[in-house]
Amino acid sequence: MQKNHAIVLLSISFVSLIAGCVSPALNAQQPTASPAITTPTIKFEGRYIDVHTHITPNGMPIDQIIQNMDKEGIDRMVIMESPTDIYNGKPQSEFGIPDAAEKYPDRFIALYGGEALFMLYSVAAKGNYTKADEEKFSSLLDEAMKSRKYGGFGEVALRHYAAEDGTEITVPGDHPWMLIMSDIAAKYDVPIDIHMESEDESVAGLEKLLDHNKNTKIIWEHAGRSNTGKTTPQLMRQMMEKHPNLYSAVKIRKPKTAERIAVRILDENDKIMPEWMTLFRDFPDRFMVGSDIKPGEKEDEFNRIKDHRTFLKQLPPEVLKNIEKENAVRIYKINQT
Ligand SMILES: [Zn+2]
User: Fold this and answer.
1) How far is ligand 1, taken at its centre, from the CA of residue 190, in Å?
2) In a domain, 337, yes or no
3) Do 90 and 62 reside in the same domain of the chain?
């Protein structure tokens, strides 16, 4: 194809050259060789950045995770401990945090969860805390960001259902400690990765968090998946219109419940639903891919996320370049050289 194109251009130039020698007048009438025979388009080249993943190096060795990333076209993964693991007090080091990111800085970005988030979940459940607790929480977050080992905070569950994996978590978006986290995130210009089922209260709390510090980038994860069926493209649109500091990432799975079918991004023929497509076109700088993969937890985890490629392939060029990589590059300040 490339070759033929080059030959066409070459022959046009040759004709122009001959024409130029024979008659300048004739030459003036020659149509200019237009390279616009093909309009430049950006197509999905099969590589993207995944901004929401959970690795467990104790399950699948890190080298094997990287090999699979290469096969799947995943340039980088943002890794974080899941809310349930944090809630159960499992150390973040078991999840490659921050070690994997330090060892392979061009493949992983680690988010800080750790002791501070464990404290947050406990305090939110208990309903009370001391001034000393708060100071400790705040300094843990600040120290983590100061160390430059982390790209942000997460995974922070504001509303997590026990049906997911046995852990029920509720942290109001306007909990004083969330406001502290938001200010520290803004101070270091890092995002907060949020897991939240849509309920009237949780959405209202998230709005207060978004309004508290408009410099804080909040990534409300798992677009296209909702156990209440309420995280619809319509709700997402309202929230994005109202809150310029709100971002999201697409998570695609075959939906099994009516609620999840109600918010799915791909229809039964694997086509992007029109309401979602319009939303991506209208807010191309707010969405990313966040597969929520947990390599090693299930044998075929990398197979389960293949639909993210099916999704990316359908995006119009100007939207694709943002969603596959550029938004993540900007938000996580990824150096691509
Ligand atoms: Zn989640």
Assistant:
1) 18
2) no
3) yes
